[in-house]
Write a structure and sequence with these properties.
single chain, four-stranded mixed beta sheet, Alpha-Beta Plaits, alpha+beta, about 30% helix, about 120 residues, about 35% strand
């Protein structure tokens, strides 16, 4: 994912984009955490901070960014509202950081959990 200039070329790795994405996702109300893209025994695995990239897939399609992310949402929240807020936040933060269009942010809700914010 690069942009050419007269001085050279800038490339941003998918892992760096995933890092921006994770911060945007976790700042959204109703998100408990990131989940692995695959379910283990039908149960969503809540990822630790250093593994958030495993819950985010970044692809470049015709010069535009497509992001798939896997989340665990807080039980009792309106899932569609939380997912929509996640989409908007990720799109805004990634486009602001990179100056490239994000055409799709696909939110995959892997599970519901009661948050541990006591």
């Amino acid at each position: 994912m690069g942009e050419g200039t007269t001085l050279g070329k800038i490339e941003v790795s998918p892992r760096a984009i995933a890092s921006i994405t994770a911060r945007a996702v976790l700042s959204c109300y109703g998100v408990v955490g990131m989940a692995a893209a695959t379910l283990r025994d039908g149960i969503a695995e809540l990822l630790q901070v250093d593994n958030y990239h495993r819950g985010i897939e970044v692809r470049l399609v015709e010069g535009q960014i497509v992001i798939d992310l896997y989340v665990i949402i807080e039980y009792g929240t309106r899932i569609s509202e939380v997912a929509h807020n996640v989409m908007e936040s990720v799109k805004f933060h990634v486009e602001k950081a990179l100056g490239m269009p994000v055409v799709e942010v696909n939110v995959h809700v892997q599970g519901l959990r009661v948050s541990n914010n006591d």
